[in-house]
């Protein structure tokens, strides 16, 4: 038994010649081709690169159907798949790899101090020499299948280890509540290195024997045209803001779509309303987290309640803690196993009775609909990507002449929130905001780089000495000069 392999290849084996993935430029890959390539790659991993069960395989690559085959190959071997955001800088990648200690790093370019490595294209070339028949390693619900890095309040990334049981149970719940069927075609515009794009969009489609129309990157006008070839669309709120901004969005353009899903960040009511007015379709909002996969979803028929993220998925339990703010806690087969190399986090992130503390705060109504009203954790979500202020502050503080810094998220029409830094110079130092932005751009992924830097004499603090970020957000909320990371 190998849970992920059976879930992802099972349906396709009944329709091997069916197209599993069509790329934006029209290349078609059948279920049989994905199946065979995954078997060949499993041989390449084990024979050619010494990967065995429990080993980590890290990958940083651009979107392609072959990534799905590599992900399945890792599951077949019993290895732990570690996808890395393609925006990560070499410095960020090195830090994560030092922690993950992968047996194999799959990456296009070489990177100092990182071995052994191979590009995805080289692995595929090697696969051509191998048999497609591979005897899958036995993997039950408790076997680790993937590790995804998320940051934290300390600024130090932590790897969330997800098991075969986590991934497959979540996928089964979603297929049930979203009524996936083989006829579905998912217009896939999400990156394949996060839960949303990989374990939600791609896994739901493959395990249903449906098809993916896989785009690299997102262009709203193009997406509006491609919607006619699809039945399901999944995106983050920024995708919907940009679709609303396209002249091509209309009832006709969306007529074939039975389900528009949104998650990863809060969606504004105005975005829902504008989209409904333009298309006649209601977006289904759902809620999830890297550590838990999907937690809740609005129903796809019946009442979709705008402003809520719906009710707990089948088998998942959601409750609020007894603090005045209402911290959201989760339990179920979807909740990850542990943080890699960080046993101490088990105590702080889980309650005594085994519920995972999400760090989000919300309210639950009598029908079980969850409304997310804020976050207890210091986190900015920019265009669906998480930015942990502490990580950015540590980089800014390392710049000569910076005494201290505070990084906050300010409302942004396109990204939901944008990253803004407030810095205090050391005595008698003149700080150039642009120099700080350029410096941060070398150290950090582009999406983490502050779009604006304000130099101030001091940061507001409370009696305990804690920086008052809410006050900073209020002070800077009024529009000021903008600088993009590339300027
Ligand atoms: C790109 N840039 C960004 C972002 N994306 N800056 C801030 N925040 C971002 N999210 C930078 C680019 O590097 C570039 O900078 C500049 O902005 C302009 O890029 P643009 O072409 O406008 O952006 P894009 O490439 O079109 O990307 C926008 C995007 C993308 C399509 C919305 O950010 C995206 O794919 N977001 C989805 C993220 C996602 O899948 N999240 C799920 C994780 P420069 O010019 O300086 O290079 S959360 C999850 O999985 C949980 C479990 C859940 O609940 O789903
Ligand atoms: P990540 O750690 O990247 O998986 O991001 C998970 C976080 O995204 C959650 O803890 C929430 O704060 C946020 N999130 C996900 N979906 C939603 C949603 N529908 N509404 C509001 N916030 C969301």
Question: Briefly, what is this?
Answer:
This protein is an alpha/beta fold. It has 14 helices and 25 strands. The strands form six sheets. The chain has a nine-stranded mixed beta sheet.
Structure description:
There is one protein chain. Mean pLDDT is 95; it is low at 479-487. This protein starts with a helix and ends in a 10-residue tail after the last helix. α2 (31-49) crosses α5 (120-127). With 487 residues, the protein is of the alpha/beta class. It is globular and about 70 Å long. Strands 2-1-10-9-11-12-13-14-15 form a 9-stranded mixed sheet. It has a 4-stranded parallel sheet with strand order 4-3-5-6. Strands 16-17-19-20 form a 4-stranded antiparallel sheet, with no helix packed on it. It has helices spanning 3-14, 31-49, 65-77, 90-100, 120-127, 164-177, 195-207, 220-226, 237-244, 269-279, 344-349, 389-397, 433-443, 469-477; strands at 19-23, 28-30, 56-60, 80-83, 104-107, 117-118, 144-150, 158-163, 185-188, 211-214, 232-235, 259-262, 284-289, 293-297, 311-312, 317-320, 327-331, 338-339, 356-364, 370-375, 380-382, 385-387, 402-412, 416-425, 452-455. Bound molecules: methylmalonyl-coenzyme A and adenosine monophosphate. Residues 190-191, 194-197, 217-218, 236, 238, 263-264, 288-290, 382-385, 415, 446-447, 485-486 line the site of methylmalonyl-coenzyme A.
